[in-house]
Amino acid sequence: MLSKDDVKKIADLAKLQLSEEEIEKFLPQLQQILDNAKMLDEVDTEGVEPIAQITGIDNMVYEDIMASENLGSKLLEQSPQPIERNMIKVSNIL
Amino acid sequence: MLHLSIKQTQEALRQKQFTATELTQAYLDRIAQTDEKLNAFVTVTADLALEQAKKADEKANFSGLLSGIPMNLKDVVCTDGIRTTASSKMLENFVPPYNAHLYDRLLDAGAILLGKTNTDEFTMGSSSENSYFGTSRNPWNLDYVPGGSSGGPAASVAGDQSIFSIGTDTGGSIRQPSSLCSIVGLKVTYGRVPRHGCIPYASSFDTGGPMTKTVEDAALVLQTIAGQSEKDATTVDTPVPDYSQFLKTDLTGMKLGLPKEYFGEGVEKEVVDTVMAGVEVLKQLGAEIVEVSLPLTKYAIPTYYLLVKSESSSNLSRYDGVKYGHASDQAKDLEEIYLKSRSEGFGDEVKRTIMIGTYALSAGYYDAFYLKAAKVRALMKREFETVFKTCDALITPTSPTLPFKIGEKADDPLSMYMSDILTTPINLAGICAMSVPAGFSQNGLPIGMQIIANQFEEGKLFHVGHAFEQATEWHKKRPIF
Q1: Which of B250, B304, B398, B447 could cross-link B435 (Cys pair, CB 3.0–4.6 Å)?
Q2: Which domain holds residue B193?
Q3: For chain B, what percent of residues have pLDDT higher than 70?
Q4: In 10 A of CB B40, how many CB atoms?
C-alpha cells in the first residue's frame, strides 16, 4: 500500500511540489493504477528479452556535417531566465 | 465547397471553380462561425493561411500532392514562429524556433496552415478534457467528448473546419477520436513518419499521422509525410510505396482475422453489432473471414501505461523553468525554480503520469514494473507476428464504447485509460492501424471500425479501408450542430 509519505517521496524524485489536497486526490488514484498493473505477474516472461525498439533497427549512422542553420541565439531567447554573455543565468544553487 | 475531400478540392482548384484564397477564406469563416461551439482550435493562423493561399494562386499550379489544401496541425507539431502549446500551461507562450520535419514536408507539397488544434495536455488523455484550453466538443453531439488526445483535430475535420489534420498516436490518440467523430484516422507503423519536432509523450510509441474525410485522402497525406528523415534516427529506409495503387474495391484473396478478445468483455454490444455488420460488407466484397486469438490483449493497458508513463517521466524532465516554457516567479533558488515551475505548469494527468513513471523506474520497483512490462511488450509483438502469418489484416472495433459525456470519466483515470484497450496493443507492437467510419448508434453517435496490419503494411489498410468505404455511405454523413 502506498502511504502519503511514499507519494511525497515520488513527487520529490520527480521534482514536483504537491499540495495536501493533491496528495489526498492522487494517493488512491495511483494506488488503483499500480494495483491494476500487478496483473502482469500472471504473464510468464521467463527468458524473454525486454523490448524497447520495436522495429528492430540498430544504430543509424550519418555523415558528421555541420549544418548552416544557426539556432544558438534563437534557442537562448527561449529561456524565461535572464541571459548574460550568451549564457542563461540561474539562481543560486546553495 | 467545405464538404469536399482533398481529391475533390484539388480537382475544383485545377478547374478554377474557386481560388485557393476563396477556399481558405471559406474555411477561416467556418472556423470563426463554429469554433465557439467546438473549441477545436488553440490558435488560428489566418494571416499566414491567406498569405500561403495567395502564393498558391499566383503560382496557379495545383499539381503538387497537397497544393492549395487548407489543413491544421495538432498543437504538438512544432511550427517555426507560431505558438505551439501542447495544450499545457507549461508551453502556453512557447514559440518554436524550427518546424517539425513533417510540417516542412506538408509545406513542400503545397498545404496551407489554418491553425493549431486542441489536445489533452501533452497528448495524455482520451477525451481532450485534460487540455489547459478547455475541452473540445463532439460535432455529432456537443454534450459529448470528441475523444482524445487528438480531439481538436477530429472535431475540426468532422465539423468541416479543415480538409484534414495531422494528429499523433501513442496509444490510440488518432484512432479513438476519429472513431468518436466519424472520420478516417491512420496510426502509421512506428518509424514510418518522422517524429522530429513533435513534442514527445513516449518516444518508443509516438507516431504522427493523417486524420481525413476519406481513405484516399489518408493515403495522399501519408504519401507526403512518410519516409526516412535525417532528423529522426528511428525512421527507417524501407521504401515508401505509391499508396494510390492500393485503393481497390475488390477484396478477393484477402484473409481478414477477427481477434475474439476485441469483441468480448468490456466492449459495448452496439459497437460489436455495428462492426460485425461491417465485417459482413467485407465478406460480400470477397474477403475471407477467420477467427483468431490474441490472448495477451487483456494485459495491454497496464503494459502500455507502465512503459509510456516511464518514458514520459523521463521526457518531461526537460521542463525545468530554465531552458524554455513556464517559469515560476515565486522561486527563491534553483531547486525552487524546478519544483514550482513544474508544479504550476503541469495539470493533474501530467502529474499523475510523471509520478507513475518515476515510481515504475525507481530503485526497487524497476524490475517488477518497467522491465516486466517491457518483456510483456516483446511477447505481444510476437503474438501479432504469429497472427499475421495467417492473416493479411485484422478487423476490430476502434473504441470499446460509444462517445461518452463530457465530465463522465474526468475523475476516474483508470476508467479513462480503459478507453484505449483496443488501440494500445497496436502501439505496443509498433504495427499500423486505421479507424474508418462504420455506422452510428441508435442515439446518433459514431462508431468506428479498426483495420490492423503488420509493420509497414499501410497499403493493406488502404486496400481494405477504401473497399469498405466505397461500399458504404457512413463517411458521407455530416454532423449538424
Answers
A1: B398
A2: 6-257+389-476
A3: 100
A4: 29
